[in-house]
Amino acid sequence: QVQLVESGGGSVQAGGSLRLSCAASGRTLSSYAVGWFRQAPGKEREFVAAISWIGGRTFYADSVKGRFASSRDNAKNTVYLQMNSLKLEDTAVYYCAATGAVVVPTIWERYDYWGQGTQVTVSS
After folding, report:
1. Which of 47, 43, 59 is closest to 107 using CA atoms?
2. Closest by Cα among 76, 39, 83, 35 to 59
């Protein structure tokens, strides 16, 4: 079992930055791909970014490409999502999730372990 805890959410003005953290316990995160998803009120959960456990390869939704960056620190058993140039439409609850899949999935149903989510609110 892997327990995930997100932190770093908050309120920020448009154009600002936040860094989310996803800290794992229970098992080492180095053997899991980690994805980031978000869900805004009234909308479906959507893929934001992911990082593989082999080589740290990253994947991004088109809506965040060039603005968000995911990284991992296996020594700290933590994955990060750096969010820059935030827009109003980035407002959502952000979740990290882990999967043992070798091919990194972009659909939330393929992830096995989830954090509780952290709220990100971008205002004008």
Report:
1. 47
2. 35
Give the tokens for residue 59.
């994947």
Helices (H), the chain: none
Cα 89 from Cα 29, distance rounded (Å): 30
Distance CA 39, CA 62 (A): 16
pLDDT, tens digit, 9 for 90 and up, residues 12-36: 999 999 999 999 998 888 889 999 9
Q: Is 42 left (phi over 0), alpha (psi -120 to 50) or beta?
A: left
Locate tokens 């140039």: which residue? 85
As given in the structure block, the two tokens for residue 25 are 């316990």
Of 72, 84, 79, which is closest to residue 95 (Cα–Cα)? 79
Q: What would the pLDDT profile of 53-91 be if each residue is shown by its tens digit? A: 878 899 999 999 999 999 999 899 999 999 999 999 999
| pLDDT for the residue 101 | 86
